[in-house]
Amino acid sequence: MVKNESPRLDATFAALADPTRRGVLMALQAGSRPVSQLAAHAHMSLPGFMKHLRALEGAGLLQRKKSGRVVTCTLTAGPMKDAAEWLAKYAAFWSVRLDALERYLEHPQEKKSWPKSSNDPKSSNDPRSASSATSAPPRAKSGARGRTRNR
Fold first, then answer.
1. How many angstroms from the chain centroid is the CA of residue 41?
2. Judging by beta carbons within 10 Å of its beta carbon (0-12, 13-18, 19+), is residue 125 exposed, middle or buried?
3. Which residues of 69-108 are buried (b: 16+ CB within 10 A; e: fewer)?
4. Greatest Cα pair distance in the chain
5. Half-sphere exposure (CA, 13 Å, Cβ side) for 95?
6. Contacts of 151 (CB under 8 A, 6+ apart)
7. Residue boundaries of the structural domains of the chain
8. Helix %, strand %, coil % for the chain, to 5?
9. pTM above 0.85, yes or no
10. CATH number of 1-107
11. What parts of the chain have a pLDDT lower than 50?
12. Tell me: the pLDDT tens digits for 105-137?
């Protein structure tokens, strides 16, 4: 079982999984915006859009502030920084692996083939297993159907 590093990181990635939420975060990069302005670009009902804002707020990615009748959203960068640091660890890991794969694919002349062993069951044309063990015979099929209850 995989243990997650933090519930906050889980919430961040869950919030980033939706394209509408990512669009809201991109719009907030330029600065704070009223909810009505953000919702105008979402092409959905306001209650549906508010669910997305609650998910972003729950993940700590934005803050809402009410001034009179206007609710303004502001981007919060802390959770994004944590997610970027987590991804950076794996970027380094995969970079090394992909570089090795690239070297392997670019230099086919360095590939070595394994010598075939005379004991290797796959090297012969015999489809049977090389094992000397016997397997149990298949189970017999059930017989005819018995009496049933009439109603």
1. 27
2. exposed
3. eeebbebbeebbebbeeeeeeeeeeeeeeeeeeeeeeeee
4. 85
5. 6
6. none
7. 1-107
8. 50, 10, 40
9. no
10. 1.10.10.10
11. 1
12. 887 666 565 566 555 555 555 556 667 777 777
